[in-house]
Write a structure and sequence with these properties.
alpha+beta, 4-stranded mixed beta sheet, 2 helices, binds FE2/S2 (inorganic) cluster
Length: 107
């Protein structure tokens, strides 16, 4: 085992892209929705500059909230998961990411 510094300075955004079978007992955020949202957010955050441009935007497996509608997004470091409509909440999510990544996180 060895340590290595993270290549991102302000934090990580995890966008769920968990896809469940149609007959699953609970819903999934969806692979296509999660991946499309991650791609958009990554590009928009980079273009926006500021702290949001220096965070990492990644897809993840289930974040544990499994909404009926929308995609779960975790802002790390932090203790909140937001569920967003991937079409109508994009700008609000970008604004939230910018604000979150502007906070000092103990580094
Ligand atoms: S499937 Fe996305 S949070 Fe569980």
């Amino acid at each position: 085992m060895r340590d290595s510094p993270t290549p991102w300075r302000h934090g990580v955004v995890l966008v769920c892209d968990n896809q469940r079978p149609q007959d699953a007992s609970k819903p999934g955020c969806g692979r296509a929705q999660g991946r499309a949202l991650r791609s958009w957010l990554k590009q928009a955050a980079r273009q926006g500059g500021g702290p949001g441009a220096a965070c990492r935007v990644l897809n993840s497996s289930c974040l544990g909230v499994c909404p009926e509608h929308g995609v779960a997004v975790a802002l790390e470091p932090g203790d909140q998961i937001v569920v967003v409509d991937p079409a109508t909440d994009r700008q609000a999510l970008l604004d939230r990411v910018q604000a979150h990544m502007s906070k000092p996180h103990g580094r």
